[in-house]
Amino acid sequence: MDLSFILNELGEERDLYYNAVAPPVLQTSNFAFHTVADLRKALANEYDANLYSRGNNPTVDMLRKKLAALDGAEDALVFGSGVASISIPIISLLNQGDHVVSVAKPYSWTVKLFETLLPRFGITTTFVDGTKIEHFEAALQSNTRLIYLESPNTMTYELQDLKAVADLARKNSIVTMIDNSYCSPLNQQPFLMGIDLVAQSATKFIGGHSDVVAGVVTGSRVMIKKIFDAEFLNLGGTISPMNAWLLIRGLRTIHLRLQRVCDSTRKIVDYLSTHPKIERVLFPFHPSFPQFELAKRQMKDAGGLFSIILKARSAAEIEKICHSLKHFLLAVSWGGHESLVFPAIAGMAVSDFDVDNPRHRLIRFYVGLEDPDYLIEDLKQALG
Questions:
Q1: So what's the architecture of 254-383 in CATH?
Q2: The predicted structure's pLDDT at residue 120
């Protein structure tokens, strides 16, 4: 399906809303029916009906069609946050006594789900180094029901071989799921490589303007309907019609924004890779990255996130550099118009800083839509 068609036309029935170029926001909680028979039919199958906006809503449905098509999947569900798009499908998939194999160092709230919430219901998780397929194979148990991936992760960017993991899981009748937030559907389509469920934070590149929080999961119609019919409706993690409309607006320019971000990031990474104060640059599409060939094989591009490991001797030195930046906002997240900086030391007490631990000297950057030379000049003055 053509990208321009997906972003600008798919799901948009303009004859239904006075041929308005921009679709309306159907900001309603409820829907009325002409007959009891129609109401009965909607109650029996809310997945295919507009009954109550906790489930379906026409504005949200338009977004679902576009997001599923971008991933090459059959259907999508949209949630009120990225973590909901991870947690609710996982809860739907698992039962008491099940086992999960997860890639090491996923998103922090995914870690909390696996280590804190799910064990309360008798579900255990084994974390593995995902850079080798043998690690996944060795961790499988007779009760393993899910292999969970995040490729690349969003601090040090380790990748997993998605096709190899999908093949392993299929042989053992295990469901696979990935957090694809780093790449977006434009730079990686895990569903087409055999991964069953693809989640991402729509707050990032899909929204693109840092004004909406949302998440999406895509997959087969059978799996999406299973999630919708129980846990999605029961836990109530839905998105509002207004936020769905903002995401549709964001999709109009995602191709242009992501292209700009990718081009600028490569230029900035090339500059920083030779800077004398930087020990190492971490970026999947830089030739120095250990999994560079795998990145080129399964990703179209690498987006705007990269990290540097400073040759710093103290936490104060790292903080000084972050505070000296004039055009990078000190903040979490990524995918918006603005450039961001996030030092790893922000997640620890200063007294715990270990100069011999490279991860403690790591600073993550996101490159937004500003001119790359403008950002390079800012980095140059901050690094000194």
A1: Alpha-Beta Complex (3.90)
A2: 97
